[in-house]
Amino acid sequence: MKIFEKISQYKEIGSFEGWMTRIVINTALGKISKQTVFLTINEDFVEDTYVEVDEEAISTDFLIKIIQELPQRYRHVFNLYVMDGYTHKEIAELLKITEGTSKSNLARARKKLRERIENHQSKNSVHSL
Predict the structure, then answer these.
(1) How far is CA 125 from CA 38, 52, 63, 64, 128, in A?
(2) What does the angle CA 10 – CA 14 – CA 20 come to, to the nearest 5 degrees?
(3) What is the rounded distance in angstroms from the CA atom of residue 109 to the CA atom of residue 38?
């Protein structure tokens, strides 16, 4: 509905799909910001965790499932950064948090995902013995 309400604001600069995506994301973020409390953290604490995935052992459905199970504040930052390609500065502005909080929430999301993936992989390697 928002897209139709705001169609007169489209200036034909850039792609229409990009303009629509921005409206959808901003609408979702507006709703999220009213419901979600982000923890403000010390910006010096940012532990970045990279997750290595054995693509044969981990299905896309499993990855989607564990991303959806992340705490809401981690999931929002993870999706904006990893899936949508926003920078921490942009995420901070959109969610009204600091860049450090964005970085921390992403690191914590990655850590939780890594733990779930490692646990899943270790269970599968035991079953295959």
Answers:
(1) 37, 16, 18, 21, 5
(2) 55
(3) 13
17-50 pLDDT per residue, tens: 888 887 888 777 777 666 655 555 454 444 555 5
Neighbour-count burial for 51-60, b at 16+ CB within 10 Å, e otherwise: beeeeeebee
Instruction: Give the H/E segment covering residue 23.
Output: helix 16-35
Domains of the chain: 13-127 (1.10.10.10)
This prediction's pTM: 0.62
**CB 24, CB 89: distance < 8 Å:** no
pLDDT tens across 78-89, in order? 999 998 899 999
